[in-house]
Structures
1.
Amino acid sequence: MKSVEDPASSNASTTEYGGGPSAATLVDGREGDQQAGLPEEKIASSPAPAKRAYVASQRQLIWWRFRKHKLAMLGGIVVMLFYIVALGADFLAYSDPQDSNAKRALVPPQAISLFDGGRLSPHTYPVTGTRDLSTFRQVYTQDTSQRVPVHFFVHGYEYSFLGIHTDLHLIGASGAKSEQSIFLFGTDEVGRDIFSRLLVATRTSLLIGLAGVALSVLLGVILGGISGFYGGVVDTIIQRCIEILRSIPTIPLWMGLAAAMPRTWSIQSVYFAITLIISLIGWTELARVVRGRFLQIRGEDFVTAAELAGSSNRRIIFVHMAPLFASHIIAATTLALPLMIVAETSLSFLGLGLRPPAISWGVMLQQAQNIQTLAFSPWMLLPVIPVVLSILAFNFLGDGLRDAADPYNV
Amino acid sequence: MLRYITRRLALGLFTMWAISVLAFVIIQLPPGDYVTTYIARMADSAGGSAGVQEARLRTLYGLDQPMAIQYLKWIGQVIQGNFGMSFDWNRPVVDVIGDRLVLSMVVSVGAILFTWVVALPIGIYSAVRKYSIGDYILTFVGFLGLAVPSFLFGLVLMYFGFVFFGVSPGGLFSANFETAGWSMAKILNLMQHLIIPCIVLGTAGTAHLIRVMRANLLDELGKPYVVTARAKGLRKWRLITKYPVRVALNPFASSIGFLFPQVVSGTIIVSIVLSLPTVGPLLLSSLQAQDMFLAGTIVLLLGVMTIIGTLVSDIVLMWLDPRIRHAG
């Protein structure tokens, strides 16, 4: 049975995955020869994917290997969700992340009640703060006699998304006063809504990470490439520099560099400087990966053949070698991203990175440094969750990509 | 072996030089220089301006000369043990740092020891009981440990310590030992307070080392000599601890080279979160106050001590591992 089915399924798969017609016939011909000479059970034991693999392109092979990695797939999905949130941060937020109001400082997180007397009508209750006279802390009580209705697609604060100015938000409360809002994750010391801030912070932290990684990739690929392609003295010098950089405790160094930024700089300059500083940490690993792959590929026959055929260096690198290590660079980049995110978070946490009014995870966590505040309002620690979650997701994704990109890993 | 040592020493010296340049750059980076800051401070306290004095000070410190000469002057002073003055404290930098630097190193080394003590048995367990429930749980915990930045871990721990025990697990000494001289009791007290910082700092490294150990040991366990030894009747655990573990240990031990700089880095932030009396909080406050001589000195000394630590561990390792010893 199997031997009859197999060629058909392999044919189907070649057309399905778009292998070139010439390659397909060639492989099919070889398979036919093999099948003729092989005993029955051996054919039955060879699974259909193995045959599909003969004609699959490099990219497909990587994708198949990656798909087997359940955790990596999960990581990939979480990373995508993070970027979707980052893109739509303003749309998903329901109150202005900069809008402070002392009357609603440190409001605890509040759930949205979905039903009102058996009818679906999402609402929250307005809170009123009173000062506890023995501890002098603001204590909030919910007024359950009133309702603050929660609606979809509500007009709120204005923002611009991809050049469109709008004030539309996914959800929102239509309360008259600012105390009559939703506080999904509570508010901070000056009464800014933590949920909305967290969304906007996600955008900042992920974008800074991306920009930092882009710079590091540029540095790593250029220096690693030079090191691996030319070898000799240049290689030795670059490798020594990398060794030195890796043996230095980096945090005090970034702290020093970050602290040297003048306080008068605009937000944009600070963003740029921080990106530059954090990109300085990631490139060494990338350069090592690139150099290793370069050295490995350089010895291959097809590179020699291209050289003998008179190809220029540029053509050899970009046409013949680059496709082979592109996937490795992508994997190494994914693994470098969490480093960047942690770097930005820790610098901002120390007050040396981004400064308010910029909002990032680190800036938000800076408020959580005070143990007294923390003890009575633990929701200030909430930014820890996206930090850890994103790092985990990027690590799983990167690990999976790295394994998938390695052709010798079965 | 001698060639290897001289090569490592040369690289180490070169790295130290590179760090000194970086430290000097950090001192020089903020706008203005030593004298501007000094004059500003004088003007703040005395209220008068000091134009003549400014010029005199400038020539005295050689600030009117090119950068390279300034660097040479500075490094010359540093080698003699003079690190300059701290503006913020109005005392020599050396006095301000005091034994904070030693405590920094104590915390870092403690964290490394913790890492080893925890990672070794767990790594062996995960490799020997591959794909068991315990292995999966430990791998997951390891991943989590890798993903949580140490200062966040410290922050969360501090919160739980406060909520459940009513104390914040900060500091390195109890109140009665804080100003006391060094004694056995004080060292014991320090040991007790070291536990939490070591856990906080060591977790990330531990997670990494468990994975290294597990992979290495799995490679070794599959080799024919293990099967032969088992077939000849050697007890399982005796065999594992005597042969494969020993071989798998080498890359494990060499990981100190990159672990140590990371832990020293981590100590800075964790010390700030847990308010440990190490150089961490001092570095932050000096950077915020633009007290650059203090900051530069801390960066320099931390870097140099890290390199010496790595160097010593490398040489000891080489002495332990015949493969490196004979390769030269």
2.
Amino acid sequence: MNRSPYITDAPTVSVIMFKVLLALVPAIMAYVWIFGGGILVTLTLATITALLAEAALLKIRQRPIQPYLMDMSAVVTAWLLALALPPLAPWWLVVVGTFFAIVIAKQLYGGLGYNPFNPAMVGYAVLLISFPLIMTKWPAPLSLAKAPLGFMDQLHFIFTSVLPENIKVDAITSATPLDYLKTQLMLKHDVASITQAPIFGTFGAKGGEVITGAYLLGGLYLLQQRIISWHLPTAFLAALTLISLGFYTFNPAHFANPLFHLMSGASMLAAFFIITDPISGPTTPRGKLYFAAGVAITTYLIRVYGGYPDGVAFAVLLMNMCVPLIDACTQPRVFGHKES
Amino acid sequence: MNAIINFANNLIRSISTNKDVFQFHGGVHPHDHKAESTLLPIAKLAIPEQLILPLRQHVGYIPKIKVQVGDHVLKGQMLAEPEGAMSAAIHAPTSGTISAISEQIIPHPSGLPDLCITLSPDGKDTWGQLAPMDWRTADKKALVACLRMSGIVGLGGATFPTHIKLTTNGKSNVHTLVINAAECEPYITCDDMLMRERADEIVKGIAIVQHLLGANHCIIGVEDNKPEAANAMADACKAFAIPAANDSVKPEMSVKVVPTLYPSGDARHLIHLLLGIEVPHDKRTTDVGLQVFNVATVLAIYRYFEFGEPAISRIVSMTGNVEKPQNFEVLFGTPLKTLIDAAGGAKPDTTHFVMGGPMMGFDLPNTDVPITKAANCIIAAAPHLFPAPPPAMPCIRCTRCAEACPVNLQPQELYWFSKSDNFEKARDYNLFDCIECGCCSYVCPSDIPLVQYYRYAKSEIIAADKAKDAADLARERNEFRLARIEREKLERAQKHAERAQATKTETKKDAVQPASEPLTNPEVATTVNDAAASDKQAAIAAAIARAKAQKLAATGDATEATSEKTVATTLEAKSASTENKQAEVKSDKQALIAAAIERAKAQKLAAAQAGIAPKNVENVSASVQAEINKTDEIREKAQQLAVEKTEDTPTK
């Protein structure tokens, strides 16, 4: 019998997924610091929902439950979705989004390895289209909120949507910088004056840029661990920088600088955690560059011209559709073959 | 875009690697486990009680057995003779008696039995007549012809008959000989030890091969995890003053150390590492002036020409989960258990034995199987060395396999296509460039047995191709048969038509008769020829022709009558014309005559063609043949008459 090779040297799928979760920990810690402990509730809710949905669907599909639950991929999806949602999102929003991501976007397409679209982004896009109001209502960073909520208040708010007496919703929420920039630009203000608002930090959003920095940190860890290849984040960040630099140079009063775009919204989360999903992404080295650049450009265009403040989810889903084409067109030269 | 990728990749590589070599894409760094079996020198394994010599120990045709059960043979005596070029001889590894010629389990991935010669040694180990040769003076062609009888095959594991690689037919374009001493698979150390201990003999063997190929240059590629071997080879190269052979080639050889990276020992990858040449996938290495030999093979060549010793033994690494891992010089046919015992026996937790390395080797069915020419390494497997792989998970398209693939394939796509039996796609994605090195499986986080999928897809495609070829041949035969039946039918119809015509001609004996007949014959004759081409078009054409012939046969009388009438009318008109127009009429007449002659000639030709065809029909009964003859006679007579008539005309 020929079953060579007899030796392997690879982290298992579980280990890869575990390292991705580990890489998210700095960002979660930053979240807790900036927005309070509510994010932990959201993460827990998403994790439980994901595992239950995954187990139920595996049972219905008559697949072995234990090995597939242990691969941790459902947890990764749950965490990425939870981190993309507004931190104090009501519990049912988290459950619906996670359920949709796991059941519709992943399991109904055949489970791990078979989903053509990024499940977390499918879940996010469904929520954004279905509940745009809640999805765009972000809490203000604790340092900026007129009435910062404690952990128990946050927990209570997530499950009941009821705030403590004498605190109004306006007191805990604020517009996100991307949103604020967009609406203020429509009012013919220029970028320089808009970014004077207290919600803006040094590079992006006040507080938010810390989380963004934490994503970058986690992403570098994944690169160092060779969990992700350099192609995707590099091409994404380079393309986003180039396109925003182009617009910024053209009209700095109307277009934010590249650094703002890199450090705002879901840029870093996308660069290192979202577009690096191998299953729904391209496989060839050149394809990865095209894919990532495509996501960056689409994200930028949606941010600047689209109807939503951030465009990562739609950009990723649009580029997911192009993956088979990208792969087919970017096959690398095989050893001993001429350049075709 | 490519430039960016290449730049980044080169940047990463340039930090860590030897700039003197030309890197290939991918590759893996498994733990080499070579230290265990290099602690002790090569030991000679004692002659076992019985030697089992499979006839199939090489790539190609199995050799023809030259001995019978009960024969006493001497050491080095040929037991089986190569049949055809692509074959290798089998020799007696020691003196003794042939005790059986039977099917036995052989060391092969299939685990199936195959024909083997069993030799019971007499313990005297008496050499037969040995015929060393002076390779410097002897004719190269004769040397290669002798080598065909040596039983030497590629000892790196490929077991390709060596003489074929040295057959140059007088004109060799090989300028560089590459000696493969990379030994990139983990655990295997037989070449390493051979180089450490017998470097000077290897170098002499290299000189012979260079002489035979006319290769001026030789590069010996050694991985950097074998510094002792590399140094020994370098010293031997320096010490060996290569004498200029009679063709005044002054060969030179050098050792080049390559970084340890599996699979650097793949011939094409080693060439790329050493020379930066990428052998085109559809070409042989000799097409770019290179030939690759394994160190052990050149040593065997040296011993054959210098001492006349044929291939009767090889160095085998006995390693893994045994008490004393070591390299042994083992006679071919030695049962595996003898070798295991010599290495101190297998440790208790040994589960099975693997032949070859851990990347490309295979499970041996039992410990009775003999050591063959392909056996470079035997590994005693145990769970702590080769843990059972966990159940395969789905592919997550992480492309670690693509990053590891030394051929730069997209293993994840090939896996997808192979799994879904989408073989055409797999072929489009260059499945057949896969060298089955196992790097993809080695790095797969989902533990998918990728190589097995590729082997499966390859075998399915090859089987389908064979089936297609067979079907094509069958269809061709069938079409040819149908065409033949059609042709025969046509010929019969024609024959009938001719007979009818001939009868008419004979009775009427009319000069204008030939005018109608030749119209059909040439057409039919060409159709017959086309039909032999046996394609569909021909069949259709034949059908049309047949219809025409039938129609003609049916309306033959009418046509004749008409044409006769026309000519008669013309003649009447002419005879009725005035006397002074006689000359004109005469010239008209002459033209008519000339045309008639032309027609008659054409008819004669056609008749000859058509006449031959029926005679060629095989297995005709005597009566049919008589009929054919009779028809021919009548036709000839008719033609003669016609010609006579036309020839007469001018004189009238």
